[in-house]
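#dry-run=false #mode=assembly
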Amino acid sequence: MTGQTPALRLDGIVKDFPGVRALDGVSFTVMPGEVHALMGENGAGKSTLMKVLGGIYQPDAGRIYIAERETRMKGPLEAKANGVMFIHQELSLAQELSVAENIYLGELPRKSFGRVDWPTLYARTDAILEKLRVGFTARTRVGELSIANQQMVEIARALTVDAKAVIFDEPTASLTDAEKVVLFDVIADLKAQGVGIIYISHRMEEIFRITDRISVLRDGEYRGTLDTAQTDETEVTQMMIGRKLDLSRSAATVEPGPVALRVEGLSCGTLFRDATFEVREGEVLGFYGLVGAGRTEIAETLFGLRKPTAGRIFLKGEEVTISSPIDAIRKGISLVPESRKEQGLVLGMNCRDNITLPQVADLTAGPFVADGAEISIYDQYRDRLSIKSPSWRTLVGNLSGGNQQKIVIGKWLSMRPEVLIVDEPTRGIDVGSKSEIHNLLRDLARQGYAVIVISSEMPEVLQCSDRIVAMYNGTIMREFTAEEVTEDSLIQAISGLNSGAAA
Amino acid sequence: MKTDILKKLVQNGAIWGFILLQLVFFELAGRYWAGSSTTFIDLDNLLLLLKQSAPIGIIAVGMTIVMVNGNIDLSVGAIYALCGIVLLDSLGWPMMEAMGDGAIPLAMLIALATGCVLGLINGLIVWKTGVDAFIVTLGAMLGYRGLVFMYNGEQPTSNLNWTMVDMAEWGIFGIQTPALVLLFVVLVVWLVMTRTVHGRNAYAIGDNREAAVNAGIRVGPHMLINFAVIGFLAALSAVVFYSGSGSVNPNDGMLFELWAITAVVLGGTKLTGGKGSIIGTLGGVIAIQLLRRGLNHIGADTETVNIVIGTILIVVLLLDRQLNRKASGELKV
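#status=ok
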């Protein structure tokens, strides 16, 4: 491969967003005829990098070379003109139009007076479809196709131009095994034609099946490139989650109390299966696993957002069913959701109103909401969680990520839950506030709450938890105590290498 | 921080600044350009303006809470006409006629209840089927208007009751009943939206429905209440207006929904929900009525008023967009 001109080369790409450096000097090279995996946990910067490459974001520094020619991508059309094509995870097809119209959208072949040249359009499209060996024609309406076939239409789009580089973003998320085989054949074909391919996926087995090299991003930084043939899942996982571990636990533990929540054989379709665990008052139970391992789904089931297909839930020894969030809140389960802004906060409301949101109905004096009672609740949790906000009137949308997260935590603490579930407690929060949140979670356990922390950051889980549940692909692989857990055993468990007994 | 305060002032005070500007403009233009002999900034003139704002103003208040909640109601004009007919027609029922003037409060109650029920029907359909409020109330608009025409064909429904006319023209300090009702409605609904649990939850649902659900707020009942309230207010508007006029034309109230939405949007309420204020809506209503009267005052053709209002609406929303544009990374299309 050496000596060839790279199909695509990124050099020191930097992208800043207010308060966050999303990409910090990312460089890597894709050779023609190479399938290059791009890996990293959520928030590692993969999608930002792809948006820079696609011309949707402008980089703050760094250069993009296509076939060693420096190229500035001013917009999506420019990316296409330069032979960089994207196959997105989310389909962007016009359902009511035909396959041919979708493939050539924006560039339909024309005759005089702007009339569409249908025969040419269909002929060209059928030629491409033939290469893809699909069972539909250029005239088929896209809405009638299965999701997998729609994906094929997206791929066909990439073949209409003389592509130098094709980026597949989680292409197999909605495909069956048989359809995957076809997709991999297509990728092999592209590869044989000398196209450089970037393949983004969380699925290790695919990565090891079809890619030549693997580049890893973490926290917006380029961590290195490995030859697929000379590495294994453990090494890649380690690179993705990092090794800079500070194992000092942030606070002493207390002797855990009685069991607050016990879950037996809980399943929800294919999202997770046969989950059995318990959490005691005064302890933090960590859930650790890669994206898609089923951690969040377990939390959502416990909070009444999903219906379990099997299994039993016990609160303080009594079996319960949880039918809705209202039900969960009433029974003493609270969830600090994964995405603060979409699921947790009302950004256009002030701090006080956000904290009292679930209980405002109980804070009335006559027909009106009791201002004083609300402010005193806000003051109480502001002091207890050291929320830094100019006043209770400040809109939550204007606070920093760490303080926003404290508002969400304060909201749920004010409901006096028995079990507090915190999903990705420090996502998108700066380093300083992270340890503050960690200390807070430890403190809450010490005060007797049963806390469940779900995280894809290993240091976080190790620092916070008394016990750790490792998940892989919807299954609990193993349970560790804080004393026995090691970095390596944890990585093995979440890579699916440890088929050992769940505790 | 300072820019925040400035931005807030611009956002919340803009409509009142605009009203002030209009007052000054029409006064000066009237005096020096159109050579009008009367002054525009005149108490009687302004009180009349408030009274004329009432029918649409009362409905616009209801529209505000529905829109804050993230919905919309296009059926208010038809509800308005239908409730007007119910009011005037019920007074003519033999049983009611036997009661004399005692029938008036009863007829008003029947009309108000009708509005409530029509609103509840809208809300129930939106809640239980999950169909978009725009579609549901568009259908309701056609359906309710159909009922209006079924009642009396193209003929107007008339029943002039002088006791009711007296009630409609009653006033205190020169402020007549319609204006008083408008101000009262503004006050009550403002209190509801800013001080009660229902108001708080309505804003939360409109701003971030998912977070509201996660906080254990029941979205459906709040939407239902808001649709019932706007139905009630459309009926109240009809009661206030038809008490005085005594005659319902089957085309009455057409486009009221659009005028109400215009006023609400001018007053700073977001079409997507979560943000808006009753006081702002009052400003929007007054601003529109001021434009109508002002253009009339300076002798402009009354037909031009729609062009002017339409232009201003778009300019206002454009300014709003510029001021509130989210992160600079926003895609330009």
